Amino acid sequence: MDATTTTPATKVATVKLLIGGEFVESKTSEWRDVVNPATQEVLARVPFATQAEVDAAVACAQEAFKTWRKTAIGARARIFLKYQQLIREHMGELAAILTAEQGKTLPDAEGDVFRGLEVVEHAAGIGNLQLGELANNVANGVDTYTLLQPLGVCAGITPFNFPAMIPLWMFPMAIVTGNTFVLKPSEQDPMVTMRLCELAIEAGIPPGVLNVVHGGEAVVNAICDHKNIKAISFVGSTKVGTHVYNRASLAGKRVQCMMGAKNHAIVMPDAHKDQSLNALAGASFGAAGQRCMAVSTAVLVGDARKWIPDLVEKAKSLKVGAGTEKGVDVGPLVSCAAFDRVTALIERGVAEGATLELDGRKPNVPGYEKGNFVGPTIFSGVKPGMSIYDQEIFGPVLCLMDAESIDEAIEIINANPNGNGTAIFTQSGAAARRFQEDIDVGQVGINVPIPVPVPMFSFTGSRASKLGDLGPYGKQVVLFYTQTKTVTARWFDDATAHGLNTTISLK
């Protein structure tokens, strides 16, 4: 279906813009339906903001920056202490909204919100994070120290697959470090993001400090080009991320882009069998495979190749259905377009010679016949050059590859251009250490299938999965959202002020 419409088919709610502290109706003529992927019910209509609306959001953010940057760091921290409390109080409501518009199960939706909440909690500790450095008496009576000062108006562009977590990666850390923010959520599922923004305003974020505009390519380009936006954080596809990075960098902005992936897990023959297979199934098929950190490829080393039938049985035991139903493990794909793309790639995998061990197409989901459902799907005999290996499927599809040794498995992973995450399952400390040293991937799990770091650290994807030097949240993002200013100071009293010095020495 074409989700973009210009006139509503039925009377449904409209998603608002947030500009200058007010939730306002867009004056655009271009709208998109927000659709429940399990039922195809239209939940709301989201506007594609006009250029004037983007300009108004940035102007409000720029004006608010004048006073927000001067707000005491303790006052900023207290807002986020209040905000984390409000998120906790509304966890069930937020998860329900998320499940309705995105499709993931309610427990997974709560996890989405919770992982964002952890970053909000980290933001509340900004007093210990935004510290400069001091060197006393670097020369005679001279001190040198650094200040971490906010940049100005920053912006974030977020994807559909984590509509709570990833916005919460961005605007809390940007705002708590003294910046103001313009957020562009995914147009596919913006409703939970907007509810989070309502709670942020309730927590005390002043008018203009947080603004939201909706839209597609035109709004993304407007953000990249706007002369008053100083930094952009992006999470999404490699194609769009590369475009954002190049365009915004040419416009002189600071940019970080977390992009596509092809995450591999090595399974060694000495691994704990049940734990490893459970972890693989959860990491491959949870969230219907719509995670940038999903394990989409497993490299089975030696006798671990004999475990394929057991893995298939585990995958068969997972329940496919609407995210609101109890006991469901795999919800629908986010859209009809995503469904068509994933099923087409499964067909290509068969045509290109991979062995289809488990076919998840056309699962039986009583009561939800219109849903975008694909069940767990497993291919063996996968080789580089096959479409299912070379492309990020972003669905519940696991590719199995063979290797004779850990060294061969590491070579396979390092030859892939992406570097978001990887894992090894083994009971050998020596094998795990070799893996963590030799693997060329930003985030490494040892018997942990999805090694996303907690907020005290930073998300550290690498190679083709990331553009920009600094990652989101954690210590790195404090540096991303601030400018380091170095001050060299010398104070004189009457006893030490003497003579004329024409050299650059401070002795």
From TrEMBL:
Enzyme Commission designation: 1.2.1.27
Family (UniProt): Belongs to the aldehyde dehydrogenase family.
PROSITE patterns attached to this UniProt entry: ALDEHYDE_DEHYDR_CYS (PS00070)
Keywords: NAD, Oxidoreductase
Regions annotated as coiled coil: none
Cited InterPro entries: Ald_DH/histidinol_DH (IPR016161), Ald_DH_C (IPR016163), Ald_DH_CS_CYS (IPR016160), Ald_DH_N (IPR016162), Aldehyde_DH_dom (IPR015590), MeMal-semiAld_DH (IPR010061)
Protein name as it appears in the record: methylmalonate-semialdehyde dehydrogenase (CoA acylating)
Domain Aldehyde dehydrogenase: start-end pairs: 23-487
Organism: Variovorax defluvii
NCBIfam families attached to this UniProt entry: MMSDH (TIGR01722)
